[in-house]
Design brief:
The chain has 29 helices and 16 strands. The chain is of the alpha/beta class and about 625 residues long. It is globular and about 90 Å long.
């Protein structure tokens, strides 16, 4: 191995989950969450599903290792140390089932010391390193195992998958190609490579490799399925649906294409059809298959789009299941609250997901305070940047930041100030408060949730007045995080031309991150100035940002934290969207942002139509705000 590892270093890696985060001691996660249940059924169910999809994952590789460990056709080892190495490796695999990665590393390291020629010992060591986030060491260890056993070509999938996680796309491509070269008749290799091309924005390459595979396997449902996902991510909707229907034609009991059709239709409509496809996918998915969580979670968004809030929030609770692939764990020294009597009880509300999500989910906190009788027993853990806003809104509450750590590969949110003498009686993730208090659109209040700092609001009113007459319109056109799958929700600044050319409007930059190139483009190409206050830290100084938003006449924004901040302050927000999106809950705006309005295209993702609608409405607003000729003379 390139990185020499000792028993002590393996032990250290296993316990790196971890003494502290930002100098803050971590809770005892083992005591809070306990040992998770055995992964054996989950692994087998996942592997069966992944094989159906064609995407070979770490779980599939773990099952592959298990089968090799229990292969009775292998010759018995000749030495005592080799026999003991096999026993230790089998124990390591059982520990892997139980998420005991410290034990995995210790046992598998001992196995490789006893028999340095035993490839399965290195496979288990690599799986343990991967599970604890030591990806570079895992990569090197997989390579060592491959050196010992070049015939086990499945390891190329692991090398490719880890290279992808390490942002090494060329290496990943090389490993997938090596597998295909050695196994040209296995469709799984083509699918993994096609999936890689899709996620690295190489549409033509993805189509080419999958068509090559279909030439060999024209009736392979998993190939048609992945081809449908590739076509959808690159905007070829009709073709995507055709490909997925082909997948169903060749394998009518294959759940994944039904799910993918439902997922795609939930972006485009009809939403009742999207819901029906999710139901069919669930019907075909075994109870012990972890895919049920993913499908149920996605079904919740169908319900949201149809305005079925109660059913939607019920399905959305799957995000809290530790077996859900994107689950975030919440570490609190108390029981979760689910409607129990709160008289005299202290309740910790823990923010979740992104900053904009926390603002939207906080919509129900005033109702929660009403249930409690006052905010004196309320504890709010939120993004550090939001602490002043929450303190102003809930002056009697204890408000502080939350932290994020990792426990057995899962992100964990914890609140160090809410333990050891300051422990609440209950906790609740902030999003779950909506389940209790927002059962219909009518339950959302018309009044804004937050109020700005009045002194800062006055400061920004003076700054805006110095620019001349308005109306003043804030702009944010994209998220800070845009990848291949998320980019469809955001339109580039070039497509905002009809809006930017609206006469009589002062545009104010609310785009966080480096937007200088886009602002310069607007000035050069459209002759429009987007005023950028260079003394304002848009991303981190949310007190000043909120105060500025409160003095604007309007904010036009993609569904981002900028829209959430402006909306919760009470500034009118217009949202150009790709189609109906779930925070609208089937309405014409985002109910959590009073006075907000969604602009939807007549045809899915027709940004020209959307921007034309926004430009027309903005022209009307600007004309209404402009003084008449008589007023100008006066």
């Amino acid at each position: 191995m390139t990185d020499k590892m000792t028993h002590e270093s393996a032990e250290a890696i296993a316990t790196e989950e971890s003494p502290s985060v930002s100098g803050v001691p971590l809770p005892n996660f083992e005591a809070l969450f306990g040992a998770p249940p055995s992964r054996k059924n989950t692994l087998l169910g996942s592997a069966a599903t992944q094989a159906g999809q064609g995407i070979f994952s770490t779980e599939d590789f773990a099952v592959h290792v298990d089968r090799r460990l229990n292969d009775s056709t292998l010759a018995a080892p000749q030495t005592a140390s080799a026999r003991k190495a096999i026993k230790l490796t089998k124990k390591a695999f059982n520990a892997y089932h139980n998420h005991d990665f410290k034990k995995v590393l210790s046992l598998s390291f001992d196995a490789t010391e006893l028999d340095p020629t035993y490839p399965l010992g290195f496979f288990m060591l690599a799986l343990g390193l991967e599970a604890t986030g030591e990806l570079h060491k895992a990569l090197v260890t997989y390579e060592k195992a491959l050196e010992l056993d070049p015939s086990d070509t499945k390891v190329y999938f692991q090398l490719g998958n880890i290279a992808r996680q390490l942002s090494m796309p060329e290496a990943a491509e090389k490993f997938y190609h090596l597998y295909i070269r050695l196994n040209p008749d296995d469709p799984v290799g083509y699918i993994n490579l096609g999936n890689h091309y899709r996620d690295t924005d190489r549409f033509e390459d993805a189509i080419e490799i999958l068509q090559m595979a279909l030439w060999r396997h024209p009736e392979e449902s998993s190939l048609w399925n992945i081809l449908g996902t590739v076509a959808f991510e690159f905007g070829h909707l009709d073709e995507a649906h055709q490909f997925l229907h082909e997948a169903i034609r060749f394998a009518p009991d294959f759940a994944r294409p039904y799910y993918n059709l439902g997922y795609q239709l939930n972006h485009t409509g009809p939403w009742d059809e999207a819901l029906a496809y999710h139901e069919k996918a669930l019907e075909l998915t075994a109870e012990n298959n972890p895919d049920r969580l993913e499908i149920t979670h996605s079904r919740g968004f169908c319900h949201f789009s149809l305005g079925n809030l109660e059913q939607g929030f019920e399905d959305w609770e799957t995000r809290r299941d530790a077996s859900f692939s994107s689950a975030v764990l919440f570490a609190a020294d108390c029981e979760p609250w689910d409607g129990e009597d709160l008289t005299g009880k202290r309740l910790l509300v823990m923010g979740e997901q992104g900053l904009g999500d926390e603002l939207m989910f906080a919509n129900a906190l005033p109702d929660l305070v009403e249930t409690m009788g006052s905010d004196e027993n309320l504890m709010i853990a939120c993004d550090e940047r939001l602490v002043p806003l929450f303190k102003r809104r809930f002056p009697g509450a204890e408000v502080g930041r939350h932290y994020v750590a990792t426990y057995r590969t899962k992100p964990v949110r914890f609140v160090p100030w809410a333990r050891e003498g300051n422990t609440p009686d209950y906790f609740i993730p902030m999003g779950t408060t909506l389940k209790h208090y927002r059962k219909s659109i009518e339950d959302f209040p018309a009044a804004p949730l937050m109020t700005p700092n009045p002194d800062l609001a006055t400061h920004w009113r003076e700054r805006l007045n110095a620019l001349g007459p308005g109306p003043f319109v804030g702009l944010c056109w994209r998220s800070l995080y845009v990848d291949v799958r998320r980019r469809k929700f955001f339109s580039p600044i070039e497509l905002w031309e009809p809006i930017l050319r609206t006469p009589g409007v002062k545009f104010i930059n609310l785009q966080y991150g480096d937007a200088s190139a886009e602002i310069a483009l607007a000035a050069k190409r459209f002759g429009v100035e987007i005023v950028d206050f260079d003394d304002l830290d848009i991303k981190n100084d949310l007190e000043s940002n909120a105060a500025l938003c409160s003095q604007l006449d309007l904010v036009i924004s993609a569904p981002t934290a900028a829209a959430a901040l402006a909306g919760t302050i009470g500034t009118p927000v217009w949202l150009p969207v790709i189609n109906r999106v779930w925070p609208s809950f089937g309405s014409d705006g985002f109910p959590a942002y009073p006075g907000s309005r969604c602009f939807l295209p007549a045809k899915h993702a027709d940004w020209a139509d959307t921007m034309g609608q926004v430009a027309e409405a903005l022209t009307q607003l600007a004309q209404a705000a402009s003084p008449s000729p008589a007023e100008q003379i006066a």
